[in-house]
Every structure is written in C-alpha cells, then in structure tokens.
Hints:
Blueprint: E1 2-11, E2 17-23, H1 30-37, E3 42-44, H2 47-54, E4 74-78, H3 80-83, E5 88-91, E6 98-101, H4 103-110
Parallel strand pairs: 1-5, 2-4
Antiparallel strand pairs: 1-2, 1-3, 5-6
Amino acid sequence: MKMVKTLFLCNSKKAEFYLFITPADKPFTAKNFSNALGISCVSFASAELMEQILGVKIGAATVCGVLMDKENLVQVVFDKNVLFEEWYGCSDGTTTGYIKFKPVLIVNNFLT
C-alpha cells in the first residue's frame, strides 16, 4: 500500500481551498498544481484555517476532513497516480494514526 500526503492549499485571497492528495514521495510544486488546474497561484493554507474548516491539525489532514467542511469550501484534488493504486494510506485525522482507503471508493462513493 502506498502512502500519500494530503496538502491543504488556498489561493492568495484565502477564498478558494484545495485538499490535494498526492504520493508521499512525489515533490510538490505550487506552480505545477496551479497550472494543472488553470488557477492563480496557490500556497499552503494556515494551520488556523485548516483547523477551522477541516477540524484537524497540521499533519492530520485526510479526505475525511471534508465532512467537517459545512460550507463546501474545499475542492478535493487527487493526483492521478494515487487513483491508479488499489489502496492508499493516509492520516486517520490524528497525527499518530493511519488508515487505508480504496481510491475508487472514495471518488465514486464518498465524494459524490
């Protein structure tokens, strides 16, 4: 099972938010992410915004955090390499535990 990193990003106005799920060993470049989505530049959202919107602390971001996003502010974005895996592992919403998911079930059942 491959591990992923889940990044909480925002635009410069802190009005648009993205939860990016990408392989843990793949370097992240904000410019490449922005270009791929055709959006203005992004950066990491603050710890305060992540806790306010997703209900988790730094190091505990997970796709399950979108359940806490009552205003539907966050767009979930998967790296295509994660989608090709049968399973992926990520934080369980804490900084010490992990959980595994089938990407196909997350995309087709959880996020729809």
